[in-house]
Structure formats: structure tokens, C-alpha cells
Amino acid sequence: MTRLRRKLPPLNALRAFEASGRRLSFRAAADDLGVTQGAVAQQVRALEEHLGIALFQRLARGLALTPSGAAYLADVSRAFDTIAESTGQLLVRPDMVTISVTPTVAAKLLIPRLADLHEALPGVDLRTVATEALSDFDRDQVDIAVRLTRMPFPVDQEARLLFRQELVAVASPHLVGGRALPLSIKQLRTLPLLHDAHDQWPAFLQSNGKLPGAMFNQTTLALDAALAGQGVALACRAFVAADLAAGRLVQVTQASAFTQTDFFLVRKRSPPPRKAAEAVWDWCAKRLGHP
């Protein structure tokens, strides 16, 4: 494959040949390509020298393709048509919407509601980018992002509050056992603590020292460990609401804490959002947001 690619003629020469063969005129090809007639003629001559084959007969009133040139033109034109079609499909996908979310938002809020999204917006193809990194709207071609941040936002961005980040301590009922709930802070300290990358336990427990316990780089992993009865996790109430309602997790203390950052739905103000992106924005605001 590499050797075949090395034998490819220069793209500009192929474009000059295709335009000249289609119009049978260097002048007309030059008009199509926005260059001079001499530049087109030079590119075609260079292509013929590269191939070692005459592609045109130069006539007094234009050009005529040689048999080899006619066969080559058919193949080159087909190749350009394929490239143009592929490029069009890549750039014009009005129903593809890309949303950037954290892995925990994806696992706990978005994925469980995808069936609802497909039912509400059957013509939309949602592309989910789950990452802890801050996605760039232009570089990463992101339409919508869910971000843990605070006001104010840059003037070129529109933001809508999805939900406050209220931290609650949760554990499996099997871990709590026969202990009466809610636990006191002193009782909570006797249970294994599960830490994530945000490490909110010291502030939650008003502790200056390092607290022992298993460490995870994502909140969703700490919650999986809590569901498995491995310890107590500290997470945003929105992420555990379904598990609390189903009894898979219990809130072990009455205390909760609001942080200085909350979850926002964010997008660029311009260009105006496509119809599909606007529909997903509205759906996210209704289905992912909490009072």
C-alpha cells in the first residue's frame, strides 16, 4: 500500500488533467480552477512526463484525449467523485450531534436515558464523548457540553444550570448492616471511605489530615465500589438519585454539602445551532436537569 501511494501523481496535476479532459480546453480548465491557462498546461505536461504517456493531442482549436488519456480520465473522474461524495457525507451530517460529558454524567445520567432520547428524537444520531478533560468546541467538534464549573462564562458561550452539586455520603445497605441511620460523623469515620479524583472527603468531614481508603480516578468507579459494598462514596445527589430510590444505595448521614461548582449545559453562541443540536439541548435541559 505504501509503495502504491508513492506512485501517485501530484494532486494539482490530476486536478488540471481532469478539468482539461472534461472541458477539452486548457483555457476552460483554467477558468474552472481559478488559475492561468499556462499553469494548467504546465501541470498537464508534468503529469504526462511523470507517467511517460501522452494524455492529449494538442489541436489548433482545443484538445483531444488519446485512448490512454480517455481511459485514465474515466478512472480519475470516478476517484474525484468518490472523494467529493465522502467529503460531503463527512461535512453534511445535520442529524449528528456531539455531546461532551464526564464519564460519571455519561454512566449515571445520559446512558440510562438514551432510549428516551431516541424515542423523543428518532432522527438524531448522538455521539457521546465521555472525558474528564475539558473539550474544545471547535477543535473537538462538540455541539454541547456538560461541565462542572461556575459562573461567569465567556461571552461567546451560552450556559444553562442543570443541577447544583449537592454532595451526599452513600453506601450499600449491606455495608451499613443493622446500624441505625442516619449515622453520626463519628460513626461514618469507622466505615471504609471511597475517594475519587475530586477528593471531597476532607472538606465534607472537616478534616485537615489525609483520610484512608481506596482511591479511584473517576466518581463512577467509586460509586460502583459503593454498590458492591466496598465502602462509602461521596457523590453528587443527581448521580445517585436512581440508586437511592431503588434501595441499591442509602444515604448514611443526614449531612450534605453544596460545592462552589455546579453542572451546566454549555454551547457556543455562534454559529446558530443546527435544528438537531437545538433539539438535543432542549432534551438535555429537561431530562438531565434537576430542580
Give the CA-based shape.
elongated
Helix content range: 40-55%
The low-confidence runs, each spanning 5 or more residues with pLDDT under 50, are none
> Largest sheet at a glance?
5 strands, mixed
Structural class: alpha/beta
Number of strands: 12
SSE inventory with pairings:
Layout (H helix, E strand, L loop, with lengths): L1 H5 L4 H13 L2 H8 L3 H15 L4 E4 L2 E4 L1 H25 L4 E6 L1 H8 L3 H7 L4 E6 L13 E6 L7 E7 L2 E6 L1 H4 L8 H4 L4 E3 L5 H4 L9 E2 L3 H9 L4 E5 H10 L3 E9 L3 E7 L6 H13 L4
Parallel strand pairs: 3-4, 3-5, 8-9, 8-10
Antiparallel strand pairs: 1-2, 5-12, 6-12, 7-10, 7-11
Helix pairs in contact: 2-3, 2-4, 2-5, 3-4
Throw out a few tags for this protein.
5-stranded mixed sheet, alpha/beta, single chain, 291 residues
Structure description:
- The chain is of the alpha/beta class and 291 residues long.
- It has 13 helices and twelve strands.
- The chain has helices at 2-6, 11-23, 26-33, 37-51, 67-91, 103-110, 114-120, 173-176, 185-188, 201-204, 219-227, 237-246, 275-287; strands at 56-59, 62-65, 96-101, 125-130, 144-149, 157-163, 166-171, 193-195, 214-215, 232-236, 250-258, 262-268.
- It has a five-stranded mixed β-sheet with strand order 4-3-5-12-6. The chain has a five-stranded mixed β-sheet with strand order 9-8-10-7-11.
- Strand 1 and strand 2 (62-65) form a beta hairpin.
- Helix 2 crosses helix 4 and helix 2 packs across helix 5 (67-91).
- The longest helix has 25 residues, at 67-91.
- The model has no long low-confidence stretch (mean pLDDT 91).
